[in-house]
Design a protein that fits this description.
352 residues, Rossmann fold
Length: 352
């Protein structure tokens, strides 16, 4: 039995706990949480999951195009700060900093924000030349920032927030909980979540409708929105509109060894737990905080719309065959139906 399992057994001896409480402990316990382990779980062989960054640099290069467009829209300020919360290994920041050029490169400063020990260690290596040149900085999640002009970007940030599944049985809301005997659904007052779900049901609530509620979403949006004085908010994540999540009964996912299932209660601290992002709610929270032009689309559509595909094709002709093939495979992952680009969405919003 792991230390975290022993802690959870002691907690369950006092009574059932909501799924969100379990997820918070399993992922974020200061000593034993999955995201506080000394070794990262991202990648391919021997790891639990991979991201778009493992497939190549094209996501970062496409983002650089959007960031430079935002810099120009702000009238080319001499300082353009990009904050990445939940920045992981720093690979997205590395790819953006590597792709930036000219006056935009001179203005660009990147802030890596992630308290995961493995992430900070990996980011120190990935960003080493940019850290040494003063173009990048590692900051902690509780570090206070003066509002800046620039962008807040993230890749698979919001899906890792502790999430609580709810189900409608036709008369009551049921909250998923874990007890010493196992998982069960118990009638409970969902509060704000119930009001939100009812408002998003396009033709009324039906038995077995259900979705997830992230209590920490609004405070996180508050913190990030407060950091950005003017500029672009952009996130890449998986999820859907609130009505679609409600109709399909969104729940938690567990990732272990590149296999995914719904057994979120097994091996706490040893597996990744994620939930679909409610893009309707996220967009609404941004609009409440003075963001405009809030919209989201599939990652594949976003790449085809904003990436310089013709320029990439021309540049790749000069590359060795193996490197050109890798670039093409990276692009196909981001754009082909059924691949990563269709599973993920990009939300953009503008302030200022």
């Amino acid at each position: 039995m792991t230390p975290l399992e022993a802690m959870l057994q002691a907690r369950l001896a006092q009574g059932p706990i909501p799924t969100s409480e379990f997820m918070a402990l399993a992922l974020y316990h200061p000593e034993h949480g999955y995201y506080r382990r000394p070794e990262g779980a991202w990648g391919f062989a021997g790891k639990d999951y991979y991201t778009a960054l493992d497939c190549g640099p094209l996501l970062g290069e496409a983002l650089t195009v959007r960031l430079e467009a935002a810099w120009r829209r702000l009238d080319r300020p001499p300082s353009f700060t990009v904050l990445e919360p939940g920045a992981g290994r720093g690979w997205l920041g590395r790819d953006i900093l590597s792709a930036a050029a000219g006056d935009f490169q001179a203005a660009l400063a990147y802030l890596h924000q992630d308290d995961n020990p493995a992430a900070r260690c990996a980011a120190t290596q990935a960003l080493e030349p940019f850290l040494a040149a003063g173009r990048a900085r590692l900051i902690r999640e509780d570090e206070a920032l003066e509002p800046f002009a620039g962008a807040v970007i993230s890749n698979e940030l919001f899906d890792a927030l502790p999430a609580q599944p709810w189900r409608w049985d036709g008369e009551h809301w049921l909250q998923e909980r874990l007890s010493a005997e196992g998982t069960h659904w118990q009638p409970s007052d969902p509060g704000e979540a119930g009001t939100w779900f009812a408002a998003q049901a396009e033709d009324g609530l039906h038995p077995e409708d259900g979705s997830i509620w992230c209590q920490d979403l609004a405070p996180l949006v508050d913190r990030l929105a407060g950091s950005l004085k003017a500029g672009l908010f952009l996130t890449v994540d998986y999820g859907a509109e609130a009505s679609r999540l409600l109709a399909k009964g969104a729940d938690l996912r567990r990732y272990k060894g590149h296999a995914v299932d719904g057994l979120w209660w097994e091996q706490p601290g040893e597996c990744d737990l994620t939930a679909d992002v409610d893009f309707t709610r996220l967009g609404g929270l941004l609009e409440q905080r003075r963001f405009a032009e809030v919209a989201h689309t599939s990652l594949s559509h976003w790449v085809r719309e904003h990436a310089p595909l013709a320029a990439w094709e021309s540049q790749w002709q000069a590359l060795p065959d193996s490197e050109r093939i890798q670039r093409m495979q990276n692009l196909l992952q981001l754009t082909l139906p059924g691949m990563m680009g269709e599973r993920f969405r990009v939300l953009e919003a503008w302030k200022g």
